[in-house]
Design goal:
The chain is 82% helix and 8% strand. It is mainly alpha-helical and 124 residues long. It has one domain: Helix Hairpins. Strands 1-2 form a two-stranded antiparallel sheet. Strand 1 and strand 2 form a beta hairpin. Helix 1 runs antiparallel to helix 2. 4% of the residues are buried.
């Protein structure tokens, strides 16, 4: 196997790995979107409550009463955390996307070089 073919295979495997990383990161982003949406709905409902309403929190197998203000703060903190995670994931998506694009161009270049070498060999 020629050096060119080895380089092509190595670049192709790296590109496939980057694509897998990109897919996994997109899935993580989608999960965070779902969690954010769910937490937004919970916060919206908590803001509708009056002091007479009782809020319950699932702890283990049972429901325990919780202060509605405390529940609201917990959900707001969770939303802050989720937003920070989304920002972090967005940065990862950008970085991985740029690396994947560079690797894709490298694979195309190597493939073109291999085709040119094969054409030259056929002409000889």
């Amino acid at each position: 196997m020629s050096k060119l073919e080895q380089d092509f295979q190595k670049a192709s495997k790296e590109f496939q790995r980057l694509q897998a990383d990109l897919t996994a990161t997109v899935e993580a982003r989608q999960k965070l979107d779902y969690q954010q949406s769910e937490s937004d709905l919970v916060l919206k409902e908590l803001k509708k409550l009056t002091p007479e309403n009782t809020v319950y929190k699932l702890i283990g197998p049972g429901l325990m009463p919780q202060d509605s203000g405390e529940a609201q703060q917990t959900v707001e903190k969770r939303l802050d955390f989720i937003k920070k995670e989304i920002d972090r994931i967005e940065d990862q998506l950008k970085t991985i996307g740029e690396k994947a694009e560079k690797k894709k161009m490298e694979v195309i270049k190597l493939q073109t070089e291999m085709q040119n070498v094969q054409q030259q060999a056929q002409k000889s």
